[in-house]
What we know:
The complex is a heterodimer of chains A (333) and B (574).
Chain A lengths: L11 H31 L3 H5 L6 H11 L5 H13 L13 H36 L4 H15 L2 H15 L12 E3 L2 E3 L4 H34 L2 H8 L4 H38 L5 H10 L3 H29 L6
Antiparallel strand pairs in A: 1-2
Chain B lengths: L10 E12 L2 E13 L4 E5 L6 H9 L7 E9 L2 E2 L5 H7 L4 E4 L3 H4 L6 H13 L3 H14 L5 H5 L8 H13 L5 E5 L7 H18 L2 E6 L2 H7 L2 E6 L2 E7 H6 L4 H8 L43 E13 L8 E13 L4 E5 L6 H9 L6 E6 L2 E2 L5 H10 E4 L13 H11 L5 H14 L16 H13 L5 E5 L7 H18 L2 E6 L2 H7 L2 E6 L2 E7 H6 L4 H9 L16
Parallel strand pairs in B: 3-8, 3-9, 6-7, 7-8, 13-18, 13-19, 16-17, 17-18
Antiparallel strand pairs in B: 1-2, 1-4, 4-5, 9-10, 11-12, 11-14, 14-15, 19-20
Helix pairs in contact in B: 4-5, 5-7, 7-8, 14-15, 14-16, 15-16, 16-17
Protein name (chain B): ABC transporter ATP-binding protein
GO molecular function (chain B): ATP binding; ATP hydrolysis activity
Main location (chain B): membrane
Amino acid sequence: MLDLASPAxxxxxxxxxxxxxxxxxxxxxxxxxxVAFSMFTFxxxxxDNMLGQERTDADIARLRAQLGLDQxxxxxYFRFLENAVQGNFGISYRQGRPVADILLERAPxxxxxxxxxGFLAIFFGIVLGVFTALRRGTVAANAVMxxxxxxxxxxxxxxxxxxxxxxxxxxxxxxxxxxxxxVNLGWWSTGFLTWSxxxxxxxxxxxxxxxxxxxxxxxxxxxxxxVLRQDYIRFARARGLRDxxxxxxxxxxxxxxxxxxVTGLQLGSIIAFAIITETVFQWPGVGLLFINxxxxxxxxxxxxxxxLISVMFVAINLIVDLLYFAIDPRLRT
Amino acid sequence: MERFDMPDTLxxxxxxxxxxxxxxxxxxxxxxxxxxxxxxxxxxxxxxxGAGKSTIGAAIMGLLEGNGHIxxxxxxFRGEQISGRDSAAMRRLRGKTISMIFQDPLxxxxxxxxxxxxxxxxxxxxxxxxxxxxAQRAEELLTRVGIPDPKTxxxxxxxQFSGGMRQRVVIALALCSEPDVIIADEPTTALxxxxxKQILELIRDLTTERQVGVILITHDMGVIAETTDRxxxxxxxxxxxxxxxxxVLGHPEHAYTKSLIAAVPRPEVKVRRFPQISYGGRxxxxxxxxxxxxxxxxxxxxxxxxxxxxxxxxxxEKGSLIPSMRRYFTAVDDVSFDIQPGEVFxxxxxxGxxxxxxxxxxxxxxxxxxGEVLYEGTRVSGADAQTVLDYRRDxxMIFQDPxxxxxxxxxxxxxxxxPALHLGMIPKAEVGARVAELLDKVGLGxxxxxxxxxxxxxxxxxxxxxARALATQPRFLICDEPTSALDVSIQAQILNxxxxxxxxxxxxxxxxxxxxxxxxxxxxxxxxxxxxxxxxLAETETLFADPQTEYTRELLRxxxxxxxxxxxxxxxxx
Lengths: 333, 574
């Protein structure tokens, strides 16, 4: 329904804009990298954790040299960046395997969960938002608005536990933990292709997406009501256009301009907040990995996780800005 | 009241009452209104805000806001009643039979769709043409409304058009379905006078050429006088007078029409005071002369009070990291003038000519890129903090928009007292008395201080702004389009107050306006601005009688003619 006119890719303004944004993104990542890396130095001595009780001073010195911890701070930071760019985040203190491998193994679970809940949040958020705006004051719209308060006010873990209680314990319809059976496509393991994998996705994705959905819904509703008051909507009515064209062509596209920003940020937080949902549902994703890493002060994993999340946030924000260009012609000229 | 009921009458409104339910009961925005529109005729609907003119337009279209409804009477098209039809039937009628043009072309067009998309969509809806035929028609329409290079223009977005061109697009959109009646709701209010003239001429031509009937809703008597065939005057929801334009304007019968016409500023005669609207209890009394008793009398130094020398202001148009790639827009270009003590100095020009920028530069709100401002011979631009503070204490500003220039969360007494307190001009103990006196003298009453801005009308708010400006007992007042957002009767009040300020308190003023008749009434000398340059500067009388530049002559020529208007009530002419 939305015919997004594609911006001309050769537009010099657009190119300079993208370059500027990419430059800013790199700056953000460097700073996050610094914070992530600082953890190595400031959160205890990893050597203590890695070597057992019966260590010798020689062991410590050897491991220190081996890990490069005897080098000055800037050198260590530069090395860290150099390695990080190449996808090398070091070796997990706890598992003794390369962090990159562990993350890669866990990432599909989190990304699939985030994708499904993001989709649910955006789809139902927009549909219900438009519905409650157009049918303002009706019983159905008021009911949706009231129920949506639950989504805003209940904390994620409580919703998760409630869902588990109702659908797993009492009704025994859906699994209460794990991903179900997965299929490996190369290095990507997917739960989309098996029945149990799909069933396992339902409760966690609802839990994770509910808050974002209600937020998007309320935002869409407010924006839509605002847009419907605009002169160009009145003029569209005065020209005798059909309600359908007015609501879903003229009004919806204008509604989406501000909604896109918030939605972009929300998608970022879906990935970041997956930690809680993954813990409640024992979902084998990076969030659960991170929680376990904290318990064991597994700093390389924590640092890599931090970097991963910030890369995603930055990427989503970049996409949001580009979407702005696509949807709003005023920015293009 | 006359009734025209010819057989080919397009639109007949009979005994129409429109009601809006409110918490305090039924509010009748239009009461028993009647008018007719013939083919090829422009019927003006004039009145002040709240008179119900736009409500009539919305009622005809079936587009009443909220829970408004037609509570009585009928609207008929070619003898068939159209009011009371269901929403699907009304939608088929809209656009197809009756079209509408709104006030602000900037907000009337959807910013996210190209002009072509909006045109073809509407054409296809009504005429059932194919996409290609519709695009073809859209191109013809743009050509007809006078938009050059229509093929390219179709693919552009509304923001790529200028204000006048946008309003042409809006007119093209209203013509898409070949309607029989067009309701134009303040179609030129947001436009410059030159553009206004073109748009009105276009509407006039289209009316004659296509034999459509037009209802032209406006508050501007000049527009009515110049464009309409017949006129209906409304006041507080009621039709007070209706008839051929020349007759109603030249020989008004109703007291309201008379006072409304008398309040219109004329370019050809200067009046000492504006006649106040003396109908329906809208009179307000104010007493500026009383303020003079406590007003400090400072003997002005010899020479001009304000000297503006070579003022130049550039705004960044396109930023870049490389300085040579940056593009600037010169809003004010080497402008110099003096303002003598006690003088009202006017600046006129179209939008974008740099008038407001100059006001802000003199007020010290903008930094100067070049040039300097002198106050009583002392340089105040870029001066030390104490000099600037002294200058700030002596100047005040009144802004155009009485809605956004008052903080809605502050009480009126706080708003009025704030500048004086901030500049440390009056002891805290005396603030209350000073504020009460000011509010009383501008005609609001001391108790107005306890209220919030939203409880006041536009004209009352502008008087709050004046009270705020007077709180510091300034010597120099900058008025930036102080009345352009106000009705003509309210404008008359505000202008009278400003005249009194000059007369009784000896205030010097910089008066900025795009409205030449108002400038004629208010100013001693006038500067004409075009594209940031001061192109002419003369005594007001000289400028109007014998303009030296082609541009000024053009501006004067474009003023809506008020010759038709009755001269009654202008006894005060000087």
